[in-house]
Amino acid sequence: MRLLICLFQVAAVSCAWISRGGGAFDHMSSLTPKTNTPQHVSSSSTFASYASSTAIADEQTVTTLGSASTSTIASSSLVRQLPPLAAGHRRIVLLRHGETEWNRRGMIQGGGYDLELNESGRQQAQAAQNQLRGLPLGVIASSHLERSAQTADIIAQAFPKAVRVVQPKFGEMRFGSFEGLKIRRVAGDDDDKEEEDSKVLELRERYHEINRKIRDHDNVAWPGGGESRAEVVERGRAALQHILKSYPEVDHICIVAHGRFNRLLLTALLGFSNPDAIVQGNTCINVLDVNEEDDQWKALVLNHLDHITSQYAKQAPS
User: What pTM, to 2 d.p., does this model score?
Assistant: First the structure.
């Protein structure tokens, strides 16, 4: 069984490619978007529970999806090449959500705007589901934001015995006044005016300037009510520990979260110094094992994207 270890370069970490050609890119037709209008999420909002779910501590909600066995599901090439789980360890499968229209258009969503998956994003989520088949997932968690929850819902269709958890603390970093702004032009933009190009360029330069400050200082927050690295990592660690403690009998847990959130959490768990060195494409798969006795985390897979055929999926704004 061969597992390739991810190689780190100066500004990016290359993918830990476990397999080539794994995971069919199937079309998803059962879930369609309810609206194309992005919903703004207030930082003080109370998030509604999913139907038939029971509220537990810390605004987390859970739903038991069913009792059917998953033992007959064939394992994907990715799953077959993962090493056996060592005694005293638990395995966390961390994903980023599928694509939204704002991802495609180069706009910042952050934790303040709630958009659904677009058609490409639903297909990506279905492909990720195929890639995870064969894992004994006992819990499938997501943030409260639609793009994360819808991706997790699609994955959960293949794991009817899993408990579906919604945890707001897995939500995306809040980018303050930058949320809702366009920082990247993409092919097919209607406005090709030089003036518009200049505005996007200026905004992107401001964004990267502030981003560098936040990268270098844990407690510097995004202007306009945004979060700092320290705040995101604190709530992310708390939510992760809550999941682990709430389901002590489950040793395979899937969490679907967000690009910047994932990068910051992975940086903290793995002891990296620069979150910009970690890339997280839409529906990328990260696999980590944790020894609960000493809280030591080991990355087996980072930014696995073999199930995605779209070139755009390699990287997109949060």
Answer: 0.76
